[in-house]
Amino acid sequence: MAKAKPRKKSPAAKAAKAATPAKSARPAKLPKRKVAQKAAGKGGRPKLPKNENGVVLLAGGNPQVAKADGDAPVQHYIANMPGWKSTQGRKLDALITRTVPAVRKAVKWNSPFYGIEGQGWFLAFHVFTKYIKVHFFRGRSLEPPPPVPSSEPRARYVHIDEGGFDDAQMTEWIKQAAAIPGWMA
Fold it and tell me: Which residues on neighbouring strands pair with residue 158, listed in sequence order?
C-alpha cells in the first residue's frame, strides 16, 4: 500500500501559522479552581474564622460551642464572644444568676439557655454582628413586654448593643420570666 503524500499548506494557512506566537511565548495556563475551593479545607467547605482561643466564629461572631448542660459551657461561650459582646455577656449572665439563684444553664444551638428545672427555659441569647439578641420565650406575658417583636407569638426580644442595657428593666423581665412556665425543649 502506498503512503499518502503530506498535503501542502496553502499560502493563507502558512501566514496564519506565522502570525500565531510560538508555544514558549504563550502565557502558561493557570489551573482551573473555583474560588470556594481555594479557601476550602477538607471536604470542600470554606474555612471559618477562629478567635485567639481557636474557637470557630460563626456568622456575626457567634462562637461555635458544643452543646452541653451546666455553667462551664455557658462561661466558655461567653469567654469566646468577640470584643464588647463578651463584656455584656458576662454582665447579663451575672445579672441572671443573681436574680434567679436556682437557674439552670446550658448551651444549645450555639446559644446560652437559662431556665428553671421542671419549668422549662425562660431566656436565651445569641450573638449577631451589631448586637446580642436576648430571647424571652414567653416575652409577651411580661409587663411591659420587651421591645422587639418575634414571629413566634409568645416570644419577645431585647437587643443589647455596645452601650449595654438597663439593669433595672432587665432584672424585672428576668424575675417575671423565671416565675412563669417556660419553653420546654
Answer: 134
Q: How confident is the model at residue 185 (pLDDT cuts 50, 70, 90)?
A: confident
**Positive or negative: CA dihedral 119, 125, 126, 128:** positive
pTM score: 0.73
Question: 182, 115 in Cβ contact below 8 A?
Answer: yes
Three-class secondary structure of residue 170 per DSSP? helix
Query: Distance between CA atoms of 38 and 44, rounded to whole angstroms?
Result: 9
Task: Count, in order, helices (H) and strands (E) of the chain.
Answer: 5, 7
| E strand residue ranges, 38-119 | 68-69, 104-108, 111-116
In sequence order, what are the residues at sequence separation of 6 or more whose Cβ sits closer than 8 angstroms to the Cβ of residue 25?
none
Domain ranges of the chain: 59-179
C-alpha cell belonging to residue 138: 414567653
* Nearest alpha-carbon partner for 100 in 167, 179, 155, 158: 179
CATH class given for the domain over 59-179: alpha beta
**pLDDT tens by residue, 93-133:** 999 999 999 999 999 999 999 999 999 999 999 999 999 99
SS3 state of residue 84: helix
